[in-house]
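Quick entry between incubations.
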Amino acid sequence: MTKRVAILISGGGSNMVALAQSMTGDHPARPVLVLSNDPEAGGLAKAAELGIATAVIDHRKFHKDRSAFEGALNASLEVANPDIICLAGFMRILTADFTAKWEGRMLNIHPSLLPKYKGLHTHARALDAGDSEHGCTVHQVTAALDDGPILGQARIAINKGDTPETLAARLLPMEHALYPAVLRRFASGDSRPVMLG
Ligand code: GRF
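Done. Structure below.
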């Protein structure tokens, strides 16, 4: 049975594009919705070009009422009826109620080698720490931020002279390789971690 995948974005959606373009042929999943909290998200036009249904739930209309915002998210998601939700550059913190509802069916990509550097500014923090390597992680989403079971990681070396910008730019293609590989394995019912680089 083909798994239905909803992808949540807030910005350019490059990870969403990589995921959507991977779901072809004998892939066990297909994208059914791209949803953004930001009506200006560039990823919305990219999703429409790919023929994927889109939705916008503008968090600013809910004036910090997280549960009302998430109620609207859930209403939109329930129409799409996804088996799996992929957070892909989705920049809103989700409540424990929301993560509990989707736990075991919701993935996220985070630009660090978790458990290191949960939260923001991961590239700068890895550089400031003098780390020799960096990377990204796909994990199951739980109530704790950037903390759920790890489903895959991709590693890159940190080069002399790297800046947060050069590191992010070198990491992004690895994200675009890792997330689709994890989704394909996860959608086939295999939760063994994918390790790249
Ligand atoms: C990426 O660095 C990703 O790791 C983080 O959001 C950034 C933008 O992703 N979660 P995208 O281009 O919008 O997919």
